[in-house]
Design goal:
Layout lengths: L2 E4 L9 H11 L4 E6 L11 H7 L7 E6 L7 H7 L3 E5 L5 H13 L3 E6 L17 E5 L15 H14 L4 E5 L7 H6 L4 E4 L1 H4 L4 H10 L1
Parallel strand pairs: 1-8, 2-3, 3-4, 4-5, 5-6, 6-7, 7-8
Helix pairs in contact: 2-3
Bound molecules: D-xylitol-5-phosphate and zinc ion.
The site of zinc ion has 6 residues, from strand 2.
Length: 217
Amino acid sequence: MAKIAPSILSADFVNLERDIRSLKDTGADWVHIDVMDGLFVPNITIGIPVVKSIRPITGLPLDVHLMIDRPIRYVEDFVRAGADWLTLHIEADQPQNTLDALDRIHALGCRAAISLKPGTPAEAAIPYLSKCDMILVMTVEPGFGGQKFMANMMPKLKKLRTMLHTANPGCLLEVDGGVDSATAPVCRDNGADVLVAGSAYFRAADPRALVKLVHSL
Ligand code: DX5
Ligand code: ZN
């Protein structure tokens, strides 16, 4: 069974509480929160106070995806704000800082993940494999919801699954970008455990159907 993490980037921000509470009713597994700083990606979204406000209104795990420059500066703030999973991009800092950030996240009692942009090869993850609870493979250029799924990322996903067999079998693989009812099975076939869905979930006439489909994979 795969898990689904709806990305609230596609929620109705005026009714964010309503949209987050509804996730439980549809059977969604996690809440995916996209944090962007206008530097690492050309968009600015949600920050620490919003994560803190979301924390008390849901019991679902908060899956916080940091698309920010030098994330080590803020990992403690996001964990304290309520993140259960904290993902940082390996392109966003020097390797030693990324390793230190992963250790810091774990020391604070949170799960730690790395993410790879589409142009970053699977091999770039090697130094971090043993320190990760999850690896996020981007299937769009990070920055915006509603983009087209990059099917050419599937060989990278498959390669990471193989690498993890020996390096860290318990590590999850997550896919983010353009996931819908057509592309979700493709992600699962190539090794994904957790599927992020923004527009396909929040614009669906029946989000329960998408959740049910993902759970059947
Ligand atoms: C993009 C974000 C995604 C985005 C996905 O940078 O990381 O989480 O919300 O949106 P969809 O599912 O619409 O591609
Ligand atoms: Zn995301």
